[in-house]
Amino acid sequence: MGPSNPYAIAAADVDDDGDVDLLSANSTGFNVTVFRNDGAAGFTAGGIVAVPVPYSPQSLTVGDLDGDGDLDLVAGAYTSPGAVSGVGVLCVRFNNGSGVFSGTGNVAAPQPVHSLVLGDVDGDGDLDLLASLGGTAPAVQVRLNNGLGGFGAPTSLPMQSECLRLCLGDIDGDGDLDLLANTYNGGEVSIRFNNGSGVFSGTASIVTNTYNYALALADFDRDGDLDIALSSDNFRGVELYANNGQASFLLFARLATLGNQTSLTAADLNGDGAPDVLGTGSDKVESFLNNGTGGFGPRMNSSYVYFGPRDLAAADLDNDGDLDVALASTAGNRLSVRLNNGTGAPLAQLNPAPAAPFTISPVPAHPADDAVWVRQLPAGTRAVLVRDAMGRAVRTVPVAGTAVALPLAGLRPGLYLVQAGSATARLMVE
């Protein structure tokens, strides 16, 4: 695959055929490239489509912006890549349901756009957009969605310096999405609390006193709240901060890596229900398996990845039930795929989870299905637990017998883990 200087990558089923496709924001190509998956992690030339955007895109996010059931995209671009000054632009492109993107919605931003994240921050059921701006007046802009993919005037949250990564998550347990932003040379991770209506406030931070690179949120210690994984110059590796449930964070682990991680994600790599740590920044993918309580095993490395990658995404690309990884390498002008426990260049995996003794159907699931059936449950099962990609319990369904209907209402598109006792299975909601 040959995108032109890809800075960012996203994984999503944009053509609604049941497998996960790849998208890359190409800095010197002035486009976003869509790579359609053939269902077995094959991305051939016939399935590649370029979506034009103005200027130089260096950030990317995907979500259903207009509420029509398919996944749209937003790319963040600016006029002077690598420079302090420049005009930013937010490029919104709508999906027709088959992975064909159109539209000319370009929202001007006063500074370069470095990072994007989507989330329903005002609780009205649609996805709002947050963008980090660099330049001489670094800030995070909050733009609320009108439900049709139209974004209103921004509210700006000033930051100490440009933020390379933004994360949304309910870190204080009040039911809405709060904001974490890692300032590159501001020496801190800034925390802003949501009042439930998309209004952010506060001055809390995690002080690192160094350059910060990558950031991820997940319930690493499985105590019901969201913890932080952070890559910075303070320690050549990943630092983990435990949440006390009230958004107060304490460093509890350090994971040594081959170099500073330019991208991090939390993903359940071995199917045990606990979020593991996956990152890159050297010429390999580096992963650490979670023991379920926030303790991590030794570093495991993939095979060589062409020209140290800048961004990564975890998804089941070959439809075998585990999470693979795709990477964007700017210097190499290419995307790379590493399959989990597969052929070619697999990621190492310790103690793979046994096949679930129960079944889920239909899969993949769609919200229009109302529910999926979980059948052949082990005798004595009292409840089925559903966890999201961050490891949080999002649904518990009581069981009386060996089968139960699992409601889909309220579950956003994505990958979930279904647990019945010690047995687990994955559920993809599209």
Overview features:
0% helix; mainly beta; Immunoglobulin-like; 2 domains; Methylamine Dehydrogenase, Chain H; 430 residues; four-stranded antiparallel β-sheet; single chain
Strand tally is 35
**What's the CATH class label of the largest domain?**
Mainly Beta
CATH superfamily of the largest domain: Integrin alpha, N-terminal
CATH topology of the largest domain, what is it called? Methylamine Dehydrogenase, Chain H
Strand % is: over 45%
Q: What summary fits the major beta sheet?
A: 5 strands, antiparallel
Global geometry = globular
For the termini, the CA-CA separation is 26 Å
Low-confidence segments:
342-355
Determine the mean pLDDT.
Answer: 86
Known CATH architecture of the largest domain? 7 Propeller
* Count of domain modules: 2
Query: For the CA atoms, what is the radius of gyration?
Result: 20 Å
Would you tell me the structural class of the helices and strands?
mainly beta
Helix count, per DSSP?
Answer: 0
Approximately how much helix is present in the residues?
A: under 10%
Commentary on this structure:
The protein has 430 residues and is mainly beta. It folds into 2 domains: 6-338, Methylamine Dehydrogenase, Chain H; 359-429, Immunoglobulin-like (Sandwich). Helices cover 0% and strands 46% of the residues. The protein has strands spanning 6-12, 21-26, 31-35, 48-52, 56-63, 72-78, 88-95, 101-109, 113-119, 128-133, 139-143, 155-158, 163-169, 178-183, 188-194, 200-201, 205-207, 212-218, 227-232, 237-243, 249-256, 263-267, 276-280, 285-288, 300-301, 311-315, 324-329, 334-338, 359-361, 371-375, 383-387, 393-398, 404-407, 414-420, 423-429. The strands form 9 sheets. Strands 13, 14, 15, 16 and 17 form a 5-stranded antiparallel sheet that branches. Strand 10 (128-133) and strand 11 (139-143) form a beta hairpin.
